Every structure is written in C-alpha cells, then in structure tokens.
Amino acid sequence: MHKINFFPLGNADSCRLDLENGMRLLFDYAEMRDADDANDKRIDLPATLREDLDAAGRDAFDVVAFSHLDNDHICGSSDFFHLDHAKKYQGGDRIKITELWVPAAVIVEDGCEDEAKIIQAEARYRLKAGAGIRVFSRPEKLESWLQKEGLTLAERSSLITDAGQLVPGFTQAEHGVEFFVHSPFASRTDEGELLDRNDDSLVLQAAFLSGGRETKLLLTADVTHEVLAEIVRVTKYKKNEARLQWDVVNLPHHCSYLSLGPDKGKEVTEPVPNVKWLYENQGQTGGLLVSTSCPIPAGESDQPPHRQAATYYKRRATALGGEFKVTMEHPKQSAPEVLVIRVDASKATIEKRILGGAAIIVNQPAPRAG
Q1: Are 286 and 365 in contact (CB under 8 A)?
Q2: Residue 157 carries which DSSP code?
Q3: Residues 27 and 219: beta-carbon distance below 8 Å
Q4: Torsion angles phi and psi, residue 17, rounded to 5
Q5: Residue 100 Cα distances to 46, 95, 124, 132, 134, angstroms
Q6: What is the SS3 assignment for 220?
Q7: In sequence order, which residues have a C-beta less than 8 Å from that of residue 159 and are 6 or more positions away?
Q8: Strand pairing class (24-27; 15-18)
Q9: Cα-based distances in Å from 27 to 30, 95, 130, 312, 320
Q10: What are the backbone dihedrals phi and psi of residue 34, each rounded to the nearest 5 degrees, phi first?
Q11: How are beta strands 2-6 and 15-18 bridged, if at all?
Q12: What is the radius of gyration, based on Cα positions, of the chain?
C-alpha cells in the first residue's frame, strides 16, 4: 500500500508520497502557520514531517520536488532542510534531500530574492556538482547558463528530463510508481525575457501499482488553463491520453477559476474545451479532486479559492461517484487534519482517524477495474 498525504496549509502546497518500499517523496514545502496565533488552524508542517521521518527511522527524503519558486510552495524551506551549498544551512536536526527536483526555470530565473534565492542557489550548486538533482526541460536558457559555468548540456544531460518522458530511477516493478512529465516545455522557458513561475512549473502524473491495480495521481502545481490546455493538446497529438488519466488530482492554484478558463462565471466556471476534456473524460470512477486551499467562500473573492471553480469540481466529483476535498475543511473546518489517501487494490480511498489514533477507511468502494 502507498499513501498520498495532503497537508492543511491554507492556500499553499505540500504533498508527501509514502511508497510501499518505505521511500518518502515530498512535493513542495510551505510552512505557513503562525506559531504566535492560537487560532491559526494550519498544520505545523515541520513538526509533522519530522514526526513521520522519526517513526520511519529516517533523516532524509528520497526526493524533494519544488514545482516552482513562489512562496506558497517553498516557505520555510531554508530553515527545515539541510542544504549542501552553504554551511549555515547544515547541521542540527535539518532534514536531508537525497535528490532535488526542480523545473529549469529555477536554475535560469533572474532576480530571485529571499527563500527563492536560497533554493535556486542549492539547485545550481547541485547541478554544477553533477549529483543529487534532476532538472526538468532543457531550454536554450539552461544551455547558456551551463556554458557560463564552464559546462555543456551534454555533460549534464543525465540529470535532465524533458516533458513527455518518464523520470529515471522509478519503475512500477521496483518502486511501485513511475512519474511521467507533462511540463514544463522547453519552448515556454525560452519565451520572452521574464519567466512565469506558475506556467513554467512542474506538472507530473504519478502512476502507482499496488495489489495488481494502477492508480494515477496528477500533480498540477499552479498552472493556468492555457498551460493545461496545451498539455492536453500535446498529449493527444502524441496519442498518449492514458498519461492524463487520473484517480486523484491535486487541483491547480488552490481552486482558482483561472486554471479552468478565462471567465469566472456567475455561478460556475466553465472550462475551456481541452481542460473540460481533462476533467470530464480522464477522471476515473470514484475520482478524488483535492483543493489545497483555504475553505471555499460562500460569496465572491478576488483570490482563490473561487466558489465558481469549486462548483465545477464538485459536479465532476459527483459525476464520478467520488469526492471533492478541501485541505482546510478536512475532516472539518474547525479542526483540519492531514488528508491521507491510501492506494492499494481498491485504488484511492480516504483514510479517517478515530479515537486513539487508529486509522480506518471510509467510503471504500469495491475494487475497480482499469
């Protein structure tokens, strides 16, 4: 059995994958909780992650992936992780990173500040050293940066994975999971003078194998509807539609309507055609749609989550016989907890905690075909 863990962090992301073989993979890290605010219901992320690693007898994550450098995906990272590039980020109880995953934009972006600058320095250090990193896409800007560092793209090609490829080092046979890369596109990272962190972020499909059944998770970061639509277009063109099937989807950008279409809508956001296809043709029976966000507002809001987008996603969950879950509402808004999804022969089922800390499964369907 594998587990997918989503953490209640407000409008921020962190997802931990616990593999059957004991490996731990973390996708984004954002410690958003205000420790001085007794009413802050967001989880203490560093304490929660350390507790899990301690219980497993570990001091490192096998993979830490940063989808992009926005604060709601990296906040507090330099206080939590052991970073190789500077001694000031080492020692104590800092958590080690065996392999760091970043989109190429993390390497080539100009003008990074604060936490983003620190993560960028770590990624650049590892890429120059030629170890402990995987970079996604190989735009011309990456080649130019390497040349300035006295390196060639060929010398670092084993550390680079492009959209449309599987991530090396993970197979269903050996690890129970494989990762297919949907984004970023090299052509996007080469457009214009400025990068767009959201649209140049890392988008993956994780395909788990457990109990003889395959379960698929889409990790979509903060991409907009334009990028999602382009992902669908390219995937269809390559006749690779199975790589966009999903049993669980981490909905992009904290349930923003802009990840569905250009217009919020009065009551519901209508997705553009290719995004509509993704949600209405590729979701599997019992599919789970997860909004890593604050509670869905009853009225209008400028910032996500948007109730109109949530209405669309709720309708899709109902049509699939699945669920729409909001991290800051699970299991209840007054006391959010980690959303744990078990992946086994029954595919994806939500785990519920009961008195005493034991875990049970709720709403577990019969094993599904496909």
Answers
A1: yes
A2: G
A3: yes
A4: -105, 125
A5: 18, 13, 11, 6, 6
A6: coil
A7: 127, 130, 133, 134, 135
A8: antiparallel
A9: 10, 14, 22, 26, 26
A10: -95, 105
A11: antiparallel
A12: 20
Question: Contact 14/20 with Cβ under 8 angstroms?
Answer: no
For residue 354, the model assigns a pLDDT of 61
C-alpha closest to that of 327 among 46, 102, 69, 16: 16
pLDDT digits 0-9 by tens, 20-56: 999 999 999 999 999 999 999 999 999 999 999 999 9
C-alpha 41/C-alpha 220 separation (Å) is: 25
Rounded to 5 degrees, what angle do the CA atoms 34, 248, 368 make? Answer: 145
Contact 143, 190 (CB under 8 A): no
CA angle, 309 as apex, 304 and 310 as ends, to 5°? 90
pLDDT digits (tens, 9 = 90+) for 290-329: 999 999 999 999 999 999 999 999 999 999 999 999 999 9
- Token pair recorded at residue 183: 């984004």
Please check whether residue 322 is in contact with residue 283, taking contact to mean a CB–CB distance below 8 angstroms.
yes
Distance in angstroms (rounded) separating the CA atoms of residues 230 and 236: 10
User: 67 and 202 in contact (C-beta within 8 Å)?
Assistant: yes
Contact call for residues 132 and 126 (beta carbons, < 8 A)? yes
CB 133 within 8 A of CB 102: yes
User: What pTM was estimated for this model as a whole?
Assistant: 0.94
How much is the pLDDT for 274?
98
Cβ-contact 284, 244 below 8 angstroms: no
229's tokens: 């639509």
| Angstrom distance (rounded) from CA 79 to CA 63 | 18
CA nearest 244: which of 198, 194, 280, 213? 280
Instruction: Measure the CA–CA gap between 45 and 247, rounded to whole angstroms.
Output: 26
Place of tokens 């999971």: 177
Percent of the chain, pLDDT > 70? 92
